[in-house]
Structure formats: C-alpha cells, structure tokens
Specification:
By secondary structure, this protein is α/β, with parallel strands linked by helices. It has a single domain, classed as Alpha-Beta Barrel (TIM Barrel), CATH 3.20.20.70. It contains 12 helices and 8 strands. It has helices at residues 5-8, 53-65, 84-93, 115-121, 135-142, 146-159, 186-201, 217-225, 229-238, 266-271, 291-295, 309-312, and strands at residues 23-27, 70-74, 97-102, 125-129, 171-175, 207-210, 253-256, 262-263. Strands 6-5-4-3-2-1-7-8 form an 8-stranded mixed sheet.
Length: 333
C-alpha cells in the first residue's frame, strides 16, 4: 500500500483553535466484517487490532472526569469488540449519549442477530453507512450482497422504532462518494435517499450525512496507483471554504486509537499524527484523567496536514456530515 503521509505533510492549511471538549471518539479496533475501497481505516476481516481491557476500563472514568456529553464508537466494526455491549451500557448508565458507527451488515452476522435489539434497549444513536440507495453502487463499492443485507438491517432497525417519528431512536445514514469527487448537496441528497428508500423498501430514517473521501490509507493508495492523487488534492483545495473551519470536529473532539493514544481526529489517528504532547511520551487516554492535562488542551495546537482540506472542501465534511449550506464548486470526472 502506498504511504500518503509524505505527500500530505507540507501544508498551508490554517490551524483551527480548539473549543471545550465534549466528545470522546474511540476506535475499538480495526477488525471488520467488510473491506471497503473508501475505508480510511484500512479495516477488514483479517485485522486483529483490538482495544485491551485496561483501556476499555478507562473510558467510563474519563467520561466522568471530563464531564463529556458523547461517546462515539467506531472501528472497524466496533460491535465486534467483545466488550462493546458492556462499554455501551456503562456509558448509558452515566447519562452519556452513545453513537454506534454501524455498517448495517453486522446486524446479520452470526452471533450478532440480537444486536439491533440491544442498541434499541440502550437508546444508542445509530449512524449507519450506506453509500447509495442503489444496489449496483453499494455492491460495487462494498461487495456482492452488502446492499441486500444493509436494507434488511435498516428494516429491522425501523421495526424497533429507529427513524420513526417521535420514537427518540435516531437513525442517521452516511453517504461516501464512490470515487474521486466531492459529495453532492447534503440537503438534496437526503431528500433523494428518503424518497428512494421509502418507495423501494418502506425504509425511514432521520438524517443523511455526506462525507468526503479522505486521501489516506486505502483510498489514498488507490488514487496514487491510478495517478489521480494530485488531481484529487487540487479538487479539495480548489473547493476550500474558510467558513467550514468553524464546524470542524477536531475543535471539540478527541480521538482515541485501539491502544489508547490520543489524536485530534480519526483521520490524524490513521496517519499516526499524535495529539501534541511532551516529546518523551505520547498522549494517552489516562492523561485525560489529569486536570492539568485537560486544562491545557485548549493551548495545544491542532495538528494539520493537506488531508484537512478534505474536511473543508465544498459543504465541508465531518462525523456529523456537511458543515455548511454551500454547494461544491466543481466535480472531478
């Protein structure tokens, strides 16, 4: 696989200022039941990296110590971690909002067929990845049969109240482009998703997030192999919007890898760009238990590189979808 970091390090991206920490985003491991082309984590069935017990047990303590509002669980498929349910339950007992970044097909994996019921019982917010409402596009990006299993998963979540008006069970979908181009307008695409999924399958959901493909790991390596890396970076930079800096997730979020190390965001985590800290030690989840470390977070500059243009191009892109109402200026072929 091609290393994209040397191509991204030199940057003129403006350094955003951090705000109050509200969200702990934890990558529980890289093991996944799918292997997707766009995956910036390079996750898959053969990966064995999983968070150990010591770090799992730190998470509820950090949530309390820092008064955090949200625990955002990701992977890989986070549900594959053997202590996923235990961690979710502990966070919910603390009154913390829990987000599960779900790929939908996990809901029909052997041993996980009761997962949807667990998520509903714990009132976990499900953010489910579905790159298109058309079978040919989904199966082309994620593998044959993924679309049918994803639709079955959405129907099961709907049966449990997810996405239904007034249920309080939030179901949000995530769109990734199938190639080297920017997402279309989020509002317009959400309307299309809601219309098509309801008419084709009777499926309802609350909101659609559009995410820009990041030029790192598997997707970045593919761009290099096809000789399109520079073209894609030009697309991102040409569509930079200063207004999107205001809503960047790194301003109120800390990302944690499967070993407990801290990063400004999930993308920096995948590039190995640690949160700034003392030279002799990498910042760790345990450091968030220290009042002095937490108090100094606002003074620690966010690490940036050229991939950050992926979060600020066009409408912008974050774990919560588009950052502005501006339309992308152009698309790559």
């Amino acid at each position: 696989m091609h290393d994209t970091l040397p191509l991204l390090r030199k940057t003129d991206f403006p350094v955003p200022r951090r705000r109050r920490l509200t969200t702990l985003q934890v990558n529980l491991g890289y093991r996944c039941n799918q292997s997707c082309l766009h995956c910036h984590v390079n996750a898959g069935p053969s990966r064995r990296e999983m968070m150990d017990d010591a770090n799992i047990e730190l998470i509820p303590a950090v949530l309390v110590a820092r008064g955090l509002e949200t625990l955002d669980l990701t992977g890989g498929a986070p549900e594959l971690h053997p202590r996923f349910r235990e961690l979710v339950s502990a966070a919910r007992r603390l009154g913390v909002r829990v987000i599960d970044r779900c790929n939908l097909t996990i809901l029909s994996e052997p041993g996980y067929t009761d997962l949807a019921e667990f998520l509903a019982a714990q009132s976990v917010e499900v953010v489910a990845s579905l790159p298109c409402y058309l079978q040919e596009n989904v199966d082309g990006q994620r593998g044959e049969g993924v679309y049918a299993r994803s639709i079955a998963g959405l129907k099961r979540l709907n049966q449990l109240g997810y996405g239904q008006p007034g249920s309080g069970q939030d179901l949000k979908l995530v769109y990734n482009p199938t190639g080297a181009f920017l997402p279309p307008d989020q509002v317009d695409l959400e309307a299309a998703y809601k219309r098509e999924l309801f008419e084709r399958h009777g499926i309802v959901f609350n909101q659609l997030f559009t995410l820009t493909n990041m030029p790192i790991l598997r997707f970045g390596s593919t761009l290099i192999s096809k000789g399109r890396f520079d073209e894609y970076m030009h697309l991102l930079k040409d569509n930079f919007s200063f207004a999107n800096l205001e809503g960047l997730m790194c301003r109120s979020l800390i990302s944690v890898d499967w070993q407990g190390h801290l990063y400004d965001c999930d993308f920096n985590q995948m590039l190995g760009l640690d949160l700034h800290g003392k030279a002799q030690s990498r910042p760790h989840l345990a450091d968030l238990l220290r009042d002095d470390f937490a108090a100094n977070l606002a003074e620690i500059p966010i690490k940036v590189a050229d991939h950050c243009y992926g979060c600020t191009a066009g409408q912008g892109s974050s774990c919560g979808g588009a950052l502005s109402d501006a339309e992308p200026l152009e698309y790559a072929a």
